[in-house]
Amino acid sequence: MSKVFLDEKYIPDRWYNILADLPKPMDPPISPFTGKPVTFDEMKALFPPQLIEQEMSTQRWIDIPEKVMEVMRLWRPTPLIRAERFEKALGVKSKIYFKYEGTSPAGSHKPNTAVAQAYYNKINGINRLTTETGAGQWGSALSVACKMLEMQCRVYMVKVSFNQKPYRKSFMRMFDAEVIPSPSEFTNAGREILKQNPESNGSLGLAISEAVEEAAGRDDTNYALGSVLNHVVLHQTVIGLETKKQFELINDYPDKIFASCGGGSNFGGIAIPFIKDKLEGKNVEAVAVEPASCPTLTKGTFAYDYGDVAKLTPIMKMYTLGHDFEPPAIHAGGLRYHGESPIVSHLYHEGIIDAQNVHQSDIFKYGIMFAQTEGIVPAPESAHAIAAAAMEAENNMEEGKEKSILFCLSGHGFFDMSAYDAYFDGKLEDYEYPEEAIRKSLENLPNV
User: Fold this and answer.
1) Phi and psi dihedrals of 405, rounded to 5?
2) 62: number of Cβ within 10 Å
3) Rounded CA separation 436/411 (Å)
4) 58: alpha, beta or left? (left if phi > 0; alpha if psi -120 to 50)
């Protein structure tokens, strides 16, 4: 069977929290203002109490509110598909499966947490949210969630993506969101960067600073984050929980899992429920796939660092390229983040997961092959996982091995055709971020 669908009754009604099962506990986030572990009260300036509780919780299973379930039923469960035509084009014997998250209203996995975050804010009397977005997937998701829950939304969009992806802006505006290119003149953080470099392309770290600064300065507004934090990764575990059930139905199980990784929510969402099995003795590998031009896990340092440029967010123990790192203007905008989810960073540092980086030429080569065989145009971010899965299957073939390979197709690429045009026109170049530039950026890590 090439497609595995689930009945709605199998939509997970609980999120899985891996903090309950870690062999070694994570280091706590540190307040940028006190230098001590962040307190519940400090986080109340940005988040509703339920999300703060989830951020700090070590409870293994956390119930999903019925109102959130009700909205998620618009697109969940999502299909698990065996990419048989892609396998044939590659000439491999390994089985390649993908979990397709592009069926959501925003075309990606992001609404899984956007709806939950909007809901918890709404029941606490907050009717306005600010956020950042890189490629536009997260901003699109929060725009949809806010509209469905009758809330206002302002999105600070990294300027290079704001210019590269005009139809993402159109999508967000369709759901009444206000979209601001970052850096902007709306915040102190934005004005400072524009003063230093009027031509700045921006970064996710800076866009986060702008959104956080605005939310912290208004009583009617909270901040929502699309990746990185524990509660965001928690919400995304519905992906992996569904996928495990689907593999049960076909009596198979993945030997290796690949997912693109920028901030970590997509990778964590599909991989963490399987990592639970790994911690219990199951033989399964999980690989986070990142761009060679922004190699946070594979070339970064495991250290305490700020999550944003303006040093307004908690200082977290994570793999980082330095909070003032401004990544190159590659098209996979959703992966242009200097840091990594503390959960994903911890798992990598402890040797529980692996990571690799891939070049743009491979991303688009395999992404186009996938589109031509499976009929789905992948987002460039998602194509990182496609490339890694394809290369794994090819290596298996050379070694005479047959494996079951799973990747998360985290979103479609219908708003990313300018990136594909650039590839077709020979305007994209492979780029590895210089080691010297990374070392220089890491010189400014906070002393914790």
Assistant:
1) -115, 135
2) 18
3) 34
4) alpha
Instruction: Identify the bridge partners of residue 378 per DSSP, sorted by sequence position.
Output: 412
Residue 66 identity: E
Cα Rg of the chain, angstroms: 20
Q: What share of the chain has pLDDT > 70, as a percent?
A: 97
Task: Please list the alpha-helical segments (H only) found in 197-301.
Answer: 204-216, 230-236, 238-249, 265-279, 296-299
3-state helix, strand, coil in the chain (%, to 5): 45, 20, 40
Of 23-27, 108-112, 203-207, 315-319, the poorest mean pLDDT is in: 203-207
31: left (phi over 0), alpha (psi -120 to 50) or beta: beta
Alpha helices in 44-187 (DSSP H): 49-56, 66-72, 84-90, 111-122, 137-148, 159-164, 166-174
Per-residue pLDDT at 326: 67
pTM here is 0.95
In degrees to the nearest 10, what's the CA dihedral of 408, 112, 379, 375? 70
C-alpha closest to that of 338 among 436, 433, 237, 234? 433
Q: Which two tokens stand for residue 91?
A: 């000439």
- Tell me how far CA of residue 302 lies from CA of 42, 235, 345, 408, in angstroms: 25, 25, 7, 25
Dihedral sign from CA coordinates of 81, 85, 90, 95:
positive
Per-residue tokens: 397: 């073939």
Tens digits of residue pLDDT in 300-325 = 999 999 887 778 788 999 999 987 77
Q: What is the pLDDT of residues 228-284, one digit of tens each?
A: 999 999 999 999 999 999 999 999 999 999 999 989 999 999 999 999 999 999 999
